[in-house]
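Subject: Protein record for review, amino acid sequence with backbone structure tokens
Concerning: The relation between a protein's sequence and the shape of its backbone.
How to read it: Take the token row as a discrete description of the fold.
Enclosed: The protein record, placed directly beneath this head.
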Amino acid sequence: MKAVIFIQLTKRQEAISQIVQENQPITGEKIAELLHVTRATLRSDLVVLTMIGLLDAKPKVGYFYVGIKDEKKEYTYFKDLKVSDIMGVPLIVHQTESVYDVIVKIFMEDAGCAFIQDKKDSFCGVVSRKDLLKASIGGGDLSKIPIGMIMTRVPNVTTVLEEESIFDAIETLVNRQVDSLPVVRLSEDGKTQIVGKLSKTIITKLFLEIKD
């Protein structure tokens, strides 16, 4: 049996909803202007309101109010989700592996990035396709350059916890403006274990499922 979750909109999300109802179609820039905030400040709110079906967005046109058939300011969804419920399988490599080998793995797995472990199997960094492209252009023997030399290192990598609310994780994903985030588990011995990945593609599939 599917669980039900009730989501309470924030005051700003309620204000955005009201503005769209009264001025639709309206651009994100205009909404930000009316609320006296930056467009970046509203980004996560607009994503949430669109994904839950309260608003609809059309490129080069703006936002429309769709509404949910509930007079209360609580909206019903059919899954009470945590990150662990929807996370994908990560591509994990060790920091001693060569840049060349990681390039091969990324394209064989059709992955957007690879998460890196150290010799203790603890999460220590991430490398993207862009990072690999830069390394390739830079020259050198890629089979002799360890991936640890070019990765973005912890603590400069944003992560989400497996038990975290999916809505909190979505906000983190949007605010960081990245395509995916590593999902981690913190162990008692101080290790940070990679257990999954949360990506924009996974989130999109989730909300398509909710819509259906």
User: Anything to note?
Assistant: Residues 78-210 form a domain with the CBS-domain fold (CATH 3.10.580.10).
